[in-house]
Specification:
The complex is a heterodimer of chains A (277) and B (225). Chain A has 277 residues and is an alpha/beta fold. Chain A is built from seven helices and 15 strands. Chain A is 26% helix and 32% strand. In chain A, the strands form three sheets. A six-stranded mixed beta sheet of chain A has the order 7-8-9-3-10-11, with helices on both faces. In chain A, α2 runs parallel beside α4 and α4 packs parallel to α5. Helices cover 75% and strands 0% of the residues of chain B. Chain B is built from eleven helices and no strands. Chain B is an all-alpha fold. Chain B has one domain: Orthogonal Bundle (MetI-like fold), CATH 1.10.3720.10. The chains are: A alpha/beta (277), B mainly alpha (225). Chains A and B meet through β7 and α4 of A and α6 and α7 of B.
Chain lengths: 277, 225
């Protein structure tokens, strides 16, 4: 077996579920934010849970930055993987204050292995005013910020975020997005960010992976992928011929048939493709 | 109201029995409740039913089987004989064993309910924060389930104090050894000592009421999120 690539996240998982089969073989860059994008039920969360080890997928393989987390004869349990996980719903410990929540993961990592320090994390996420409170006193957005801070303070080498904004209302999302921007600029570790919101992906992602029905439909640079996802794209085409009520177009080397278009063979057309809401 | 030295002895013995049984049940009942709350095994229903049996079984039935098992021809009896501690029936430790069985559902069921309401998310979050399974239990599950532990402890203690049938079957009536308060009252009534029976009965009545009052008024503030 080949040694895992030192600067990549390599994941191969196959999970059969009632409504879909997740079947992926991924090679992701181990820096920047990679958005896992796709409709609900396409396997994004399952993939993230498999990477975290919360879901045990027999036969799966996973190596992160050269370190093997799972293969045929290895399964490192979640608590021994240097990862941070931010759940969609609140996951703060209700019996601990915000400070103790933040310290929970940090205290379980030996001091000489800590890569992110208290002051910087508190500062990035604006947590200072919240530290003395109890979780139930916080708003939804504040809780998610604490949850992100708690994950970072455990000095992860990989941060997994499962739709961290999906359970928040629009104003809480607006409040938290600038902090995520900050993280994006300062954080040296790779982030896998599950989302089905184009706006979040557009704002945060460097790299994009589109999942459809458990398979990778597209992956690449976010800037290239965004054209596919959100904004309309335009393509130049020209009419080749009319056949049986169909118009045959040539578009970037490919052939496309459309119901009869009012144009003569050889005419140039512009095709605008827009994603429907 | 004056309790005789014999009555006091019975009361002290009862409290000793209940305290020891409750401690043993915490150790024994917690893993059973944890397993029942989290397993998807096909054995969940049968084991749950066995744990709940003492709720519906007449104490004499339970006592009868325990008497046979712990007696000279039972496998427990042969084992205890073989390791040199003799037979358990009609001893204080026999009562302890019987009471542990008899009060088991009162420990397991409140704990199971508390563990079931914990939610997978909280424990998974702890796992991703480097907490081992045992660490997760002590740092997250147990503190959140604390009200369940309180309820389970109080109910087990009180239920053991209120035991009568099993004690009579397995313990008999040996002063200072197996004669607990409920049996002492029975003796007083049998001997037509209604005055003494009244005094001791009143003590148990007040005690039981206070325990339940404690349970119903003072509850640890439920954790919310």
């Amino acid at each position: 077996m080949n040694a895992p690539h030192p600067n990549r996240i390599e994941a191969r998982f196959r999970v059969a579920r009632e409504n879909f089969t997740l079947d992926v073989d991924l090679h992701l860059p181990d820096r920047g934010i990679t958005a896992l994008f796709g409709p609900s039920g396409c396997g994004k969360t399952t993939l993230l849970r498999a990477i975290a080890g919360l879901e045990r997928v027999p036969g799966g393989r996973l190596a992160v930055s050269g370190e093997r987390w799972q293969d045929a004869d290895t399964f490192i349990p979640p608590h021994r993987r240097a990862l941070g996980y931010v759940f969609q719903e609140t996951s703060l410990f209700p019996h601990l204050s915000v400070r103790r929540n933040l310290e929970y993961g940090m205290k379980r990592v030996p001091e000489n292995e800590r890569t992110l320090h208290w002051d910087e994390v508190i500062d990035w996420l604006g947590l200072a005013p919240l530290i003395r409170q109890q979780p139930h006193q916080l708003s939804g957005g504040q809780r998610q910020r604490v949850a992100i801070g708690r994950a970072l303070l455990s000095s992860p080498r990989l941060l997994l975020m499962d739709e961290p904004l999906a359970a928040l209302d629009a104003s809480a999302r607006a409040e938290i997005l600038p902090y995520l921007d900050q993280l994006h600029q300062r954080l040296a570790i790779p982030v896998l960010y599950v989302s089905h919101a184009v706006e979040e992906v557009a704002r945060l992602a460097d790299h994009l992976l589109c999942l459809e029905a458990g398979r990778v439909a597209w992956q690449g640079e976010a800037a290239d992928g965004l054209a596919r996802l959100g904004a309309a794209t335009e393509h130049s085409a020209h009419v080749v011929a009319h056949e049986d009520g169909w118009t045959v177009l040539e578009i970037e080397g490919q052939t496309l048939r459309l119901p009869c278009v009012d144009a003569k063979p050889g005419d140039a057309l512009r095709l605008r493709i827009e994603r429907s809401a | 109201m004056m309790l005789s030295p014999g009555d006091w002895q019975a009361v002290v013995l009862t409290l000793e029995l209940a305290a020891i049984v409750t401690l043993i049940l915490f150790v024994l009942g917690t893993p059973i409740a944890w397993w029942l709350a989290r397993t998807h095994s096909k054995w969940k229903a049968p084991i749950g039913a066995v744990v709940a049996l003492p709720l519906v079984l007449p104490p004499s039935v339970l006592g009868f089987y325990l008497l046979l098992t712990m007696g000279p021809n039972g496998w427990v009896g042969q084992f205890t004989n073989a390791i040199g501690i003799g037979l358990l029936p009609f001893t204080f430790w026999g009562l302890v064993v019987a009471s542990v069985f008899y009060s088991l559902p009162f420990m397991v069921q409140p704990l199971q309910t508390a563990f079931e309401s914990l939610g997978e998310r909280t424990l998974e979050a702890a796992a991703t924060l480097r907490a081992s399974p045992l660490d997760r239990f002590f740092s997250v599950a147990a503190p959140i389930a604390l009200p369940g532990f309180m309820t389970a402890g109080i109910l087990s203690f009180a239920h053991t104090v209120g035991e009568f049938g099993v004690v009579l079957m397995i313990g008999g009536n040996i002063p200072g050894e197996t004669r607990v308060a409920s049996v002492q009252i029975f003796d007083h009534v049998e001997a037509l000592q209604y005055g003494e029976a009244h005094d001791l009965a009143a003590v148990l009545l007040v005690f039981s009421f206070l325990v339940l009052l404690l349970l119903y008024t003072w509850r640890p503030k439920a954790l919310r999120l």
